[in-house]
Amino acid sequence: MNIFERMQKIDPRIIYLIFFLSLAIPVLWPFALPIAINTETKMAYDFVEKMPEGSILWIGADYGPSTVPEMGPVSKAVLRQAFRKNLKVVIYPMWQDGQALMQNYAEEISKEYKKEYGKDWVNLGWRNEADTLLRLMTEDIMKATAGVDWAGNKLADMPIMQNLKALDKGQVAGIFEFMTGNPGAGTYLQRVVEPKGVPMAVACTAVSAPGEMPYVRSGQYKGLVNGLRGAAEYEALVGKPDKATAGMSAQSLGHIVIMLFIILGNIGYVLKKSR
Amino acid sequence: MNQIYFLAAEAAKKPQPVLGLFVEKNVGAFFLMLFMTVIVWVMIARARGAKKIPAIRKLAGLDAIDEAIGRATEMGRPVHFSPGLGGVTDPETFAFFATLGHVAKQAARYDTRLINTHRNQYVYAIADEIIRQAYLEAGRPDAYNPDDVRYLSPYQFAYASGVIGIFQREKIAANLMIGYFYAEALIFAEAGYQAGAIQVAGTTSTAQLPFFVAACDYTLIGEEIYAGSAYLSKDPVLTGSVVGQDIAKIGIFLLILVGTIIANFNNFGAKSNFLKDLLLK
Amino acid sequence: MRKEVPMIITVLSALAVIFGKYFFLGDQSKILTYTDKYFNISGAFAMLIGLISLTMVHTTNIRRRKEGWYNSIVLLVVMYGYLILGLIEGNKGTAFRWIYNNAFVNLDATMFSLLAFYIASAAYRAFRVRSWEATMLLVAAFLVMLGNIPPGEFLGSWVADSKNWIMRIPNTAAMRAINIGAYVGAFAVAMRILLGIERAHMGGRS
């Protein structure tokens, strides 16, 4: 094998090792990088920022542990913004993992802002076929949830639920959906946003973002937070840099390494062809 | 004191029927559904009546399925077929069922081992029955091995790790993936590549299509997977339904074109885009 | 009747959903509320069936001493152990949450992180300037990758502008086209099932 063929056929283990180092070193020793804010992220931030104090923000916790590195930071940033603005937060997970993950973040962030469970925020809890129940939520939340939250506590006893009977435009200021797949934003679009007119912003993984972009362009989503980069932008807007901002150094170096490998492979390809 | 946000006017609005019959904002959708139903039904009726209908164009990915099975037969190594993460309510899974029958029959004919892995217990039960039936129809009921139809795990990454383990241990020669895939798509595709398998994949998931295109030998994009049953069986009635769906698509394309022209010419002096208003009535 | 009864149920359910979704009378009579509830109940049975299926598959593996049968023992012990713990402690239980947060979350994230490495090797292999289309794909990939990282901004605002243009215009157009095609295709599949032409799922041929 000559040098050009070697450049085109690098052993994947070498690629994996160099790529691993390019991610691990910045994770262990992160460095600061300035971040410009994308229009779609700003739209999502403004969407929450414009909600009147005391209004209800419905949070769709529809992701699993695999996407925690991307979705965790943006979840915390949105919760910080919501609690800072004294919004009432209602968490509804259509993924069973979303229940536990968002509960963890909400418990952590609510302590920072001294918010009380049942009064300032509630986790309605996951139920089987939660996407089917979403349509029922638009009619009667008590019926859909059987009147209990994620831990079995009675919703009727909670102050936050006194003026919230259904997921509709008159009672909920907006939805912030955290999604990585199905059920996700598409489910909300079909069952809540289009029929009931409740506005929605979405945070998704970078891999899902190209597929969600048409809905931002058509105005069906009020904003889109795209992956780890979007999460870092949102943290900057909220004014509290956290794991996403730290992760940008790893993402930057990782992307650069992949691009260098691709360039190397192409140089080998072109030079071999020209001989 | 916190103000509770409550749009009393919105809450007090009572819904009214549109045209005396329909739910608000659903009239356009209903007639669009009716239009598509009629088109598909007409083409199916034409096919049943043995009238001429357009043929399905060549789909390299579907042709490659037979090539993949042939390659596996020559190498004496198994074929793996995965339906992805879809359940029985997903149309992509039906595309998988339709293709599975053909693949199982070919595998039975050529005495090639077919390993079919699952993440959903209902899909597993149906696929098992389809494979058993296919082996029976091919005249090889003795060759059917129930242990090669495997229900691995309902969890995405547990299923993925089970599958890549199978790729390495069984040294598969062909990897077929048709259905709805999520993040495990690239794991399967790369593991299949590293096992040296020829790979044919098809999905409607826009997030996973780029990975299949990059890592697989042949990719069926979007609705091409639904043409599988018609293309492989050459059944005229199924072909009729595929033609009907294509005509429906052309209709939607024309609607988009007309709506775009109206919007670009400032709605021709009207207050708003009347086609958009009609569809969203 | 084995095939006719499911088909009749399918058609009646479809008509009920269409009536409830599009017609005012159906919407007011809350038919969809009932169908949603029944779907929810059947989903609960599906979960139970999943548990039973897994148990049957893995007990068979253990009984027949198939390859890797000891893994089946671990699976059954962990599955039923965690189930019993959850039933005793509930969602708020300390041990229940600790196991989830410290074991399951990390394991799942680790498997997902494999993708990063696979993407690196797949991109290295796939993005070659074999043709004009492949070159365009490569250039687009580079612009989007550069646009997504802060160092890309050091090269000038044209990087972010190019990335945004790619995401907002050609990407949106392509995604819309694929989605429209996929949904129309799914509709045709649904029609075939309702008309009884597609019967693969009932054990018959199409």
Q: Could you please describe the fold and organization of this structure?
A:
The longest helix of chain A is centred in the C-terminal third of the chain and has 32 residues, at 243-274. Chain A is elongated and about 75 Å long. In chain A, helix 4 (68-84) runs parallel beside helix 10 (227-238) and helix 10 runs antiparallel to helix 11 (243-274). Chain A has two domains: 3-30 and 251-274; 39-241, Rossmann fold, CATH 3.40.50. The mean pLDDT of chain A is 93. Chain A is α/β, with parallel strands linked by helices and 275 residues long. Chain A has helices at residues 3-8, 12-28, 39-49, 68-84, 96-112, 130-137, 141-145, 185-196, 209-217, 227-238, 243-274; strands spanning 56-62, 88-92, 121-123, 174-179, 200-204, 224-226. By secondary structure, chain B is of the alpha/beta class. Chain B contains eleven helices and six strands. Chain B has a six-stranded parallel beta sheet with strand order 3-2-1-4-5-6, sandwiched between helices. Chain B is elongated and about 70 Å long. Chain C is mostly helical and 206 residues long. Chain C has a domain at 1-89. In chain C, 82% of the residues lie in helices and 0% in strands. Chain C has helices spanning 4-22, 24-28, 31-63, 69-89, 94-126, 132-147, 150-154, 157-168, 170-194. In chain C, 25% of the residues are buried. Chains B and C meet through helix 2, helix 4, helix 5, helix 6 and helix 7 of B and helix 1, helix 2, helix 3, helix 5 and helix 9 of C.
Can you summarize this structure?
The complex is a heterotrimer of chains A (275), B (281) and C (206). With 275 residues, chain A is α/β, with parallel strands linked by helices. In chain A, 53% of the residues lie in helices and 11% in strands.
Helix content of chain A: 40-55%
Sketch the topology of chain A as an H/E string, one letter per element: HHHEHEHEHHEHEHEHH
H/I helix tally of chain A: 11
Q: Supply the CATH architecture of the domain at 60-233 in chain B.
A: 3-Layer(aba) Sandwich
Number of strands of chain B: 6
Rg result of chain A: 22 Å
Query: What is the overall pLDDT average of chain A?
Result: 93
Strand content of chain B: 5-15%
Largest sheet of chain B: 6 strands, parallel
Q: SSE order of chain B in H/E notation?
A: HHHEHEHEHEHEHEHHH
Helical content of chain B stands at 40-55%
Low-confidence stretches of chain B: 1-6
- List low-confidence stretches of chain A: none
C-alpha Rg of chain B, in Å? 24 Å
Q: Please identify the structural class of chain A as seen in this structure.
A: alpha/beta
Q: What do the pLDDT scores of chain B average to?
A: 88
Structural domain tally of chain A: 2
Q: End-to-end span of chain A in angstroms? A: 14 Å
Number of helices of chain B: 11
Largest interface: B-C, 73 and 56 residues
